[in-house]
Amino acid sequence: MFSIRETGSVFLRFGKVIVAGTIRATGSHALRLGLLLGAAWAFPLSGAHAETLYGALGKAYTANPTLNLQRASLRATDEGVPQALSGYRPTVTGSANAGVRSSNYQFPYQPSTGQGGGEEAWSTLYPRGLTLQINQNIFTGGRTMNSVRQAEASVQSGREQLRFQEQSILYDGAQAYMNVLADTAVLSLQRNNVEVLEEQLRQTRDRFNVGEVTRTDVAQSEAALATGHAQEAAASAQLKTSIATYRQIIGDDPRQLAPGQPVEKFLPGNVDSAVKVALGAHPAILAGLHNVDAQEFQVKVLESQLLPQLGVTGSVSRTYDSNYRRDLSTSASIVAQLNVPIYEGGLVYSQVRQAKEQVGQARMQVDVTREQVRQQVIASWAALDAAKQQIAASQSAVQANEIALAGVREEAKVGQRTTLDVLNAQQTLLSSRVQLVRAQRDRIVASYNVLGSIGRLSVTTLGVRVTKYNAKKHYEQVRDKWGGLQTPDGR
Fold first, then answer.
1. pLDDT tops 80 at residue 21
2. For residues 162 and 443, is the Cβ–Cβ distance under 8 A?
3. Looking at the domain assignment, is residue 133 inside a domain?
4. Most confident of 323-327, 397-401, 454-458, 485-489
5. Rounded distance between C-alpha atoms, residue 69 and residue 252, angstroms
6. Confidence band (pLDDT; 50, 70, 90) for 385?
7. What is the pLDDT of residue 53?
8. Which of 192, 400, 428, 449 has the fewest CB atoms lying closer than 10 Å?
9. CATH no. for residue 430?
10. Which residues lie closer than 8 Å to 45 by C-beta, 6 or more apart?
């Protein structure tokens, strides 16, 4: 009934997994199907201009706007330390004043001399002065010291948050990369399926014209082809979505993508070891612990308001024409001032109690985060195991469905199977091939997910060749600055 014969096997490459998928066709059609499947999976498998997964992750690490936004946020957090350190330093203020003062004098009548009585005199002065004042805190109840420690804890928390964001971007980048590869392979499979269905419809119509099959067989072939076109359109739309996501995360359109590889070599040997690593190194947990430190220092900062405050104020001033023309007055003073709070209405006490509750809240949040991390490690590890098993099952399914399709076609030749049976077998084989592609994609993505869930997904771990962002550099540049309006990068 059908002239489609077995011509060979095409290999779908995914990392180290090689799956043989038998393609049945004749002549140039068979060659075209083989080339499509080979190109669909990984574009060119070699070449000087092929983009690798690590290369794409390097682009995302360098230029992803979300990651750069987090870095800018950390740089802003760094400035909290020099702001807190300013409490140790003196404040200097200068002031100047100048004006005009005019006075009118009326002389009283003097009976003894007969003078006065309505005579007036005007006096105009130009008072002006300069004042320089220096204030220096001596004792602030520990406010400055604890403010500095709080700011440093916030910086440490911000660095861990940045590391967590880096992990998220690297995982999203790996997922976007593999989605493009997998969706390209699926689209190619769907296109191949349409070509086979078109050939099958043509042969069915030829057989209908000579009376070998009925109009029902033709209608079934036409319906299968229409479904194939719909599946092809859906696969094309999914690929366009994946390409858009790839550009959003990586920052460039995907072109020649090389096969991806799992990162299982960086993972612990078992799930229990993975959980142990995650609880000790996950950036979300470490960020929470630093946040607890910051909240504890905030309690001490508030408590300092209930302690005495000691400071020294020194001032020098010079005034001109304050009382009469060309007079000059210079004064200087050094004053120590001690402020002892007695009762401030209960505001500070309430703030301290509130801050202590916030410390407890931060500690509880760390516990919540630990459980979330534990759950994520176990779930991602299970997903990785499931993907491996799915690959093995899908490989078996593809091989079995290929044999089944060949048998159905042979049985259809002698009238033991209908056209619908052949179409169903063809669809089942297509589904198993698509499932295999998805399982291979899921294995790589799941391995990245496990690596991120234990807190080790980084360009350093992966060995990505990219200049690593140094979060300490900006901190060291601004920590001890006493002044200056420009940021270290010149803005």
1. no
2. no
3. no
4. 454-458
5. 18
6. very high
7. 93
8. 400
9. 1.20.1600.10
10. 13, 38, 258, 259
User: How sure is the predictor about 145, in pLDDT bands with cuts at 50, 70 and 90?
Assistant: very high
Q: Residues 92, 131: contact at Cβ < 8 Å? A: no
Phi, psi of 311 (to 5 degrees): -150, 165
Per the DSSP assignment, residues forming a β-bridge with 95 are: 131
d(CA 91, CA 88) in angstroms, rounded, equals 10
Where does residue 465 rank: exposed (0-12), middle (13-18), buried (19+ CB within 10 A)?
A: exposed
- Reduced to 3 states (helix: H, G, I; strand: E, B; else coil), residue 211 is coil
How far apart are the C-alpha atoms of 310 and 365, rounded to whole Å?
38
**What does the alpha-carbon distance between residue 51 and residue 410 come to, in Å, rounded to a whole number?**
44
Burial of 199 (0-12, 13-18, 19+ CB in 10 A): middle
pLDDT tens readout for residues 192-205 = 889 888 888 888 88
Mean pLDDT, rounded, for 436-456:
93
Burial class (CB in 10 A: 0-12, 13-18, 19+), 166: buried
* 473-490 pLDDT per residue, tens: 998 888 888 888 777 876
- Give yes or no for residue 6 having a pLDDT over 90: no
Q: How far, in Å, CA of 364 to CA of 215, rounded?
A: 71
The stretch 60-69 carries a mean pLDDT of 93
Q: Length of the chain in residues, anyone?
A: 491
How buried is residue 150: exposed, middle or buried, by Cβ count under 10 Å (0-12/13-18/19+)?
buried
End-to-end C-alpha distance for the chain, whole angstroms: 77
- Does residue 6 sit within a domain? no
Host H or E run for residue 406: helix 347-413
Which tops the pLDDT comparison, 27 or 97? Answer: 97
The candidate with the shortest Cα–Cα distance to 188, out of 236, 243, 258, 253, is 236
Residue 48 pLDDT greater than 70, yes or no: no
DSSP state of 150: H
Q: How far is CA 278 from CA 154, 248, 364, in A?
A: 22, 29, 18
Tally of domains in the chain: 1
In this structure, is residue 281 part of a structural domain? yes
- Distances in Å between the Cα of 408 and the Cα atoms of 226, 412, 413, 419, 445 are 22, 6, 9, 9, 36
Q: Average of pLDDT values for 144-148? A: 93
Range of the domain at 380: 41-90+142-307+339-478
User: How far apart, in whole angstroms, are the C-alpha atoms of residue 381 and residue 375?
Assistant: 10
3-state secondary structure of 127: coil
What is the reported pTM?
0.80
CA distance 179 to 437: 10
- C-alpha span between 128 and 55 (Å, rounded): 69
Considering the domain boundaries, does residue 259 fall inside one?
yes
CA distances 442 to 113, 124, 260, Å, are 117, 91, 11
